[in-house]
Amino acid sequence: MKSLYVKFVAITIGIMIFSSIFAFLISNTYYQQKLKPYNDQKITKIAQSIAMFTDEHPHMNLKEYLEHISAIGYQIYLVDNAGEESFFGAAFRDKSLSVSMKEYVLNGNTYHGILHFPQKTFVTGFFANELKNTIGVPLTYNGKNYALFLRPDIKLLFNEMHFLFGWLLAFTIILSIVMVVFSTKYLVKPISKLTTATKSLSNGDFNVELDITRHDELGELSHSFLRMARKLEQMDDIRKEFISNISHDIQSPLSNIKGYTNLLENESISLEERGQYVSIINDEIRRLSTLTKQLLLLASLDRNDDMMKKKPFNVGQQIKELIRNYQWLLSEKGIMLSYSLPDTEMIGDPSLLNTVWDNLLTNAIKYNKPDGTIEILLEVKGESIVVTFKDTGIGLNHTEIERIFDRFYRADTARTRTIEGTGLGLSIVWTIIKLHDGHINVNSKEKEGTTFIVELPVN
Ligand code: ADP
């Protein structure tokens, strides 16, 4: 596997090479299109002024004069009618030039070799040290005709600049590579850290540390990663607690049942005791049955919401019917129940919502004070229906309110110990209401009472 680091460095260097080639091609084209004519004109003027000077000074030494000019920074080729030729200044790399060209200049014309130097993709004509790449002008000296070919001696004129640009380029390249190598390390390091963290997470170690304090996308990613790790840890804890709760809640009725069946095996116990034990065993079996029913319901609610069978029904009537079923329990406990339940149609799963009202009502009864009251209200507010269950029971404190919808949570066991329950009822309520896109709120004051407010969309 090629590491991200190697790839990144290779790609960056590749980009650098590509862009330098591209930049060279563009500047070469620029020279060919725009600069070459200027250059040609400039050199032509210089050549012409040399020719003019020799014409006006017939008594000077031509060769000496041209020697001087070449020393300033020009490469010169001189030829006469007889074909006698001489060179001044640095030698041309390529001395070929057609005879017809020489004759063309000897006949009094100007040769624009710089302008017409052939365009080549990777050769900038400016640097080509060739006799063809010159300006040719006619020159008369002492009544004799010559052809003078001339180009600037790039090496002499620009040698230092060459070095300067050479070093500039070399340093730019070297520094860029070094910087890319280091900056890539800086970029890639958090990714390696994240990979290590992911590995330890997949090995079940949720306690990952990530010291990535950056404000870019990688910082964001590591924040999200840490959040995810915490969430996973929480979920793992909840799962473990859930299993241990279930095991405990199943184990304790089972051992009770076992204890009492053992006692029943003793033939010397009275009929009265026997009846008592059987009734305890029955209670425990009922508890187990409730627990497994609730667990099955929660599991199916968790799996998906396909199990919902939504249809229009009358909630007001549904709750009134439920109250009727609990009338005996209410009078047994001496609890006064009042309600305002107008006929109201809504769309939802009637059987699941019945479970909601059932849980809220049995809780209001179970956790009420003797001679307490319960008030149930149904109101339509815009597109929602609001159902309120208000009791004058034992109430809940702040920390308890935060947890009552957690699975298996039962507030202050000392108080609820004598009251039968599994701690699953309200989590079922919460899940069903969420599946209906509704929500539930709790207001409660210790020793004074609790109010549950359920809000559900009508449709
Ligand atoms: P349980 O089976 O214990 O009733 P629930 O999930 O229905 O489980 O309720 C969770 C806990 O919330 C209860 O154990 C109880 O402590 C508290 N609770 C629920 N309803 C009320 C209420 N109306 N008044 C006071 N406490 C309540």
TrEMBL record:
GO terms for cellular component: plasma membrane. It is an enzyme of class 2 (transferase). Its EC number is 2.7.13.3. Member of the two-component regulatory system HssS/HssR involved in intracellular heme homeostasis and tempering of staphylococcal virulence. HssS functions as a heme sensor histidine kinase which is autophosphorylated at a histidine residue and transfers its phosphate group to an aspartate residue of HssR. HssR/HssS activates the expression of hrtAB, an efflux pump, in response to extracellular heme, hemin, hemoglobin or blood. It is found in: Cell membrane. It is a multi-pass membrane protein. GO terms for molecular function: ATP binding; phosphorelay sensor kinase activity. This is Heme sensor protein HssS. InterPro entries: HAMP_dom, HATPase_C_sf, HATPase_dom, His_kinase_dom, HisK_dim/P_dom, HisK_dim/P_sf, HssS/ArlS-like, Sig_transdc_His_kin-like_C. The keyword Ligase does not apply. It catalyses: ATP + protein L-histidine = ADP + protein N-phospho-L-histidine. Pfam families: HAMP, HATPase_c, HisKA. It comes from Metabacillus sediminilitoris. Keywords: ATP-binding, Cell membrane, Kinase, Membrane, Nucleotide-binding, Phosphoprotein, Transferase, Transmembrane, Transmembrane helix, Two-component regulatory system, Virulence. SMART domains: HAMP (SM00304), HATPase_c (SM00387), HisKA (SM00388). It comes from the Bacteria.
